[in-house]
Design goal:
Distance between the termini: 50 Å
Shape: rod-shaped
Number of strands: 12
Helix content: under 10%
Number of domains: 1
Amino acid sequence: MAGFDIASNFKGNVTYHIPAFNNPQGLIAKALNGWWIASIVSMQSGLPINPLIGNRSLSNNPGAAGSATDRPDLDPSFDRHKVITHNPARWFDPTMFALPLAGTLGNVPRNYLRGPDLKNVDFAINKDTRLREQAIVQFRAEVFNILNRPNFANTGTGQGVGAANNTNIIASLSSPAAIQCGPNYAVNSCQFGSSPALAPNATAGIIVATATTSRQIQLSLKLIF
């Protein structure tokens, strides 16, 4: 699954011109006529979250074209559809992941979890006032995120899509675990050497940013000619 995958995505917009009043004349007509409203609605499901281990016990240093981190194992007692808490303080339970056994690759697929969804409504009310035959003054009052809904970004330090959706479940090491071998490097005499303990990442699952701003109001006046 791509890091920018959005399973459900809806965008809609509407513009409505309020019918003109025919009887008023002069300044009253200019004040009552020329009003129109517009709105944009956006709704989409969350972006993927890619769980990783913050060290490279197997891949070591693969170079610019490779990945420098490994994937964790999934604790079979957890259901990924139930570990999402919808709480920005801990969006998912990081204890659902564990270190793979020595010499094995983690079984958690790429982009295994989903981040927060997005729902946003923008609204504008506008007034066109004709000054002369080819000149219009347009007043615009625009409200972005009119419902003031907090749309949270993905967890981790990267808040966007693609590679930025990676989140380290376990803190990184300065060097990977060493492999020690006996005479002639016989396979049956090789074993993983001791290494510092890998501590859980204290920020795993924590949301630190939003994908949209809070409610913003913008007033503008434009001359069209």
